[in-house]
Amino acid sequence: MANSKQLTKNEEEVFGRFRLTVDCVVFGLDFSSSSLKLVLVRRGEEPFKDCWSLPGGFVYGMEETRAAAQRILAKKTGLGDVFLEQLYTFDALKRDERAGSGLNKDVDRIISVAYFALVSPAQHRVEQTGGGNATDATWFAVDDLSELDCLSFDHELIIETAVNRLRGKLSYVPIGFELLERKFTLKELQRVYEIVLGHNLDSSNFRRRALRMKILEPLEEKQESVAHRPAQLYRFNEKRYRELVEKGFDFEL
Amino acid sequence: MANSKQLTKNEEEVFGRFRLTVDCVVFGLDFSSSSLKLVLVRRGEEPFKDCWSLPGGFVYGMEETRAAAQRILAKKTGLGDVFLEQLYTFDALKRDERAGSGLNKDVDRIISVAYFALVSPAQHRVEQTGGGNATDATWFAVDDLSELDCLSFDHELIIETAVNRLRGKLSYVPIGFELLERKFTLKELQRVYEIVLGHNLDSSNFRRRALRMKILEPLEEKQESVAHRPAQLYRFNEKRYRELVEKGFDFEL
DNA sequence: TTTAGTTAGTGTAAAAATGACAATAAGGTT
DNA sequence: AACCTTATTGTCATTTTTACACTAACTAAA
Fold first, then answer.
1. What does B216-243 look like in DSSP terms, one character per residue?
2. Cβ contact B226 with chain C strand, < 7 A
3. Whole-number Å distance between alpha carbons of A175 and A193
4. What would you measure as the largest C-alpha separation in chain B, in angstroms?
5. CA gap B235, B218 in Å, rounded
6. How far apart, in whole angstroms, are the C-alpha atoms of residue A110 and residue B17?
7. Interchain pair A86, B88: CB under 8 A
8. Over the stretch B17-75, which tens digit does the pLDDT of each residue have?
């Protein structure tokens, strides 16, 4: 096995045999605690048995990684139809010690194509049954992860990368509504930004900027049964968004 | 071989065997023609023999993809010490027909981790000898690529992705100086933005914004032997840049 | 039926940033 | 010395941002 001894110059120049996994960083907002959360599952087997881990798994031979991410997400968390975007490919030499042994006896390395997903509150309920090797899919606040006893593999690095990407991306691509229901109020959208970016925003100014780009479409409806003035409901106008992308419009918020 | 027939449900659920390649999109600026260029090499063997292709190759078993990119870049183009960043992982099912035959007989798929690189004019001279299977490493203007007779594999998609990433990134991360010498004038930096973004900028306003963020450090030196007022030379202050990143500073230009 | 409480939404004035462009500076060339 | 060219500074009207005051609309309690 490739791991077991120093490689000679010659052996090194054989093209590597790889296994591919996908790992998904699934983000959701908890409005009641004002926190950004993500889904972790408990690993059912070694290595890292009983450690927390990102929902992930091996990619089949005739399956694209995006499809694998969807399959695994459905199986391990019950989530379907989520915003999914490729994040980064993690390939550190010793990131997964299963390479070279067991079912992976004949592979040199196991690398992971990470995806990040955004889910709305209605989708928050994750299956607790735990498909496959995973049990106890659970939401954790990103800020509390340091309290976990252990995280599998290089998942801490993957999560850090994903959080940075989400923060960076939110500011210049309108993805905030992916974390909301289809209909939402401006205040709710504002809260998305506040929670993800980690600081409060002025409602009046946020409103002006959010409406200026004309990708939020006011509905006929208003909020109902709230003990105060009901807010206008909006929805994201994807068609209009695509038109603006064509023109190279700047969505900074 | 996995490609040769329809897979049964059972066969599909065997974890895939993958080969990994890296492909590099190497960007450089041609100031004399005001164009954004990238390096292509001619493929020496089938498939796509004699077609143009991104410098790339297989990853070894005990080599990280970034190191592979550096190795391959050095071998095929003679370039070393360049700004290199992981771009995206391309894994469409039929992107590389070599999977399942020849040296790749026992693999299901060949996926590519693409990197993009930025090189300065001094680094522009690429080796014409062509190491390995590649010959004729050559610079092409991004805008003229449609005139090429053929591009290998999914390299057109990779290039499109890379150009979008470069344009997007330039606007909010100060990477422009990676395309310049260590010492540069503000006008040169402005030209970087003009060429990459594809439109002209007002010198006075560009200067104001570029200097405002305090990451450009004026040197003692000035331009020499030009037939007009010599311009102040600057260098990028990386330390200062890192400090500002810490504070969450916005580098939009 | 008021009135108080609460959040939605509008308005505004000072400060900062932008965009267009004029004016001056500093070299070399003729 | 006069001229040419690009660098650099300055200016000003306009737009955008920021902070914050003010009005609107609804429920619930009195």
1. EEEEEEE--S-SSPPPEEEEE-HHHHHH
2. yes
3. 10
4. 75
5. 7
6. 10
7. yes
8. 999 999 999 999 999 899 999 999 999 888 999 999 999 999 999 999 999 999 999 99
